[in-house]
Amino acid sequence: MEPPKGSPEWLEVFTAAERPDLWERARQEEVLDRVWPEYNHHGNDSPTTFRALVPDYGDFQVLFIDRRADRIIARGRTIPFRWDGTLADLPDGIDALGRRALSEGGAPTALSALAAEVDDARQGSGLSSLVILAMTALAQAHGLRSLVAPVRPNWKDRYPLIPIGRYAAWTRPDGLPFDPWMRAHARLGARILRPAPQSLHIAAPVEDWQAWVGMAFPEDGQYVFPHGLAPLMVSGGEGDYWEPNVWMLHDSGRPGTILGQDWRRGSSSAPSAQAESPLRPGRPRGHHTKPGQCAFSADISGIRGKAVVVRT
């Protein structure tokens, strides 16, 4: 893959299909795995989705390499799936997305981001925005008209008691999202589709939760815990947690209308019953490349941010 316009000259970008050896190296080094809180590695359903990505979806996974040091510095993980372009058909979250992508037949119509991970030492350098652009380029290269992302807001752990719908609606005086990671997506043209209050499920014995988060849960009840985006419910020796995300849309082909209900106003976002969803069958009018080839068309040299993960 060609790096995005505005990238430093030392940056190289490869898909897992192009360099399976690098993908395996990233897995063994575990540097990028460490950007996640420990509990996030123990989802009930999400590990199945992530294990299936390579080799089955190798063309949709990207790695960023600093060739000066031969160092893996970022990774983007995505999965193609069928979506009719309406809010009603959008999966409930990352767990439901994975089940649909792995179980339903037929040609995919959209690409979903799963994770945009940046080495801790390189955070704040704009690499996270480059990873998003790489994902958009993958969607374009494979004829998928849109990239969606179940975004994991990276300041939500500061406000775990605020419902995700309210948090997602917070904005700064300039109108951009309050959350830095949502804001990074918005600056690249994404818009909010709707919140996903039950995106990723983690249910496990209390003993496991105590080891993962480093605190005790002495009795049944609701607990706020380190790095949690929502409270943990403890009952009968089990801890139950639903991680919330926010669905956002990047249109990788042409402008279009998402059909369905506006999540904040409850009114239809479609101008007419005949309006076309951007993911309905038809030839996209965006940049065309052959499958497996990617080309970037956006310059993000002025974008900087410290957000590092798309979801969970």
Instruction: Kindly report how far apart the N and C termini lie.
Output: 26 Å
The Rg value, from CA coordinates, equals 19 Å
Average pLDDT rating: 84
Strand content: 15-25%
Q: Biggest sheet, open or closed, and with what strands and sense? A: 9 strands, mixed
Apparent shape: globular
Would you count the extended β strands for me?
9
Helix content: 10-25%
Structural class: alpha+beta
Helix count, per DSSP? Answer: 7
Query: Which stretches are low in confidence, meaning pLDDT under 50 for 5 or more residues running?
Result: 254-263, 266-312
Order of helices and strands: EHHEEHEHEHHEHEEE
Describe the structure.
The protein has 312 residues and is an alpha+beta fold. It is built from seven helices and nine strands; from the N terminus they run E-H-H-E-E-H-E-H-E-H-H-E-H-E-E-E. Strands 1, 2, 3, 4, 5, 6, 7, 8 and 9 form a nine-stranded mixed β-sheet that branches. Residues 254-263 and 266-312 have low confidence and may be disordered.
Secondary structure: elements and pairs:
Blueprint: E1 11-15, H1 20-29, H2 46-51, E2 62-66, E3 71-81, H3 94-103, E4 110-118, H4 127-141, E5 146-151, H5 164-169, H6 180-187, E6 191-205, H7 206-213, E7 221-223, E8 232-235, E9 238-251
Parallel strand pairs: 4-5
Antiparallel strand pairs: 1-2, 2-3, 3-4, 5-9, 6-9, 7-8, 8-9
Structure in a nutshell:
This protein is α+β, with helices and mostly antiparallel strands. It contains seven helices and nine strands, in the order E-H-H-E-E-H-E-H-E-H-H-E-H-E-E-E.
